[in-house]
Every structure is written in C-alpha cells, then in structure tokens.
Amino acid sequence: ANQRTIIRGDQSEPIISLASIAAKVERDRLMIRLAKKYPLYALEIHKGYGTLGHRKAIRAYGLSKIHRGTFCTRFIS
C-alpha cells in the first residue's frame, strides 16, 4: 500500500484533523466512563494525561489495572 508521512498533517489535511478530533472525543468519553470504575484517579478531570493531580494520585494509590505500567514507572518512584 502506498503511504507517506505528513508531518503536522492535522494542520494541513482535513481528514487527519477529523480523525484526530474523533479519537480525542472517544478517548475523553472513555476516561469519563472509567472514572466511575476508578474514582480515586479523577480521570474525568484530566482524561488520563500526566497532570500533577494524576501523578499525585498514582503515587498515593498506585497503578490501576488500566494504567500502562511501563509508561508510568517514573511517576511511582
């Protein structure tokens, strides 16, 4: 299949921009649903981004089943 990398494609290609927005909206909705299952982490607020509040929650409560342990290792040290 033919493909090419488009650096900053979401700025120049409407379909890439649409896909990026759709993915973010879906992720945010997922985080809101997961926040009900994991209320200690305030996922509905920071949507899983590594904000100070999220890092503090990880340090206080450890990783949940949904956290990527290999990514979060620097937060739990």
Entry keywords:
60% helix; mainly alpha; 77 residues; 5 helices; elongated
Q: Outline, from the CA principal axes?
A: elongated
Number of E strands = 0
The sequence of SSEs as H and E is: HHHHH
Q: Which percent bin holds the helix content?
A: 55-70%
- Structural category is mainly alpha
Counting DSSP H or I runs of 4 or more residues, the number of helices is: 5
User: Biggest sheet, open or closed, and with what strands and sense?
Assistant: none
What distance separates the N and C termini? 43 Å
Beta strand %: under 5%
Average pLDDT, rounded to a whole number, is 91
Radius of gyration: 16 Å
Low-confidence segments: none
Mind explaining what this structure looks like?
The protein is an all-alpha fold and 77 residues long. It is 60% helix and 0% strand. It contains 5 helices and no strands. The protein has helices spanning 9-12, 14-37, 43-46, 52-61, 69-72. It is elongated and about 45 Å long.
Secondary structure: elements and pairs:
Layout: H1 9-12, H2 14-37, H3 43-46, H4 52-61, H5 69-72
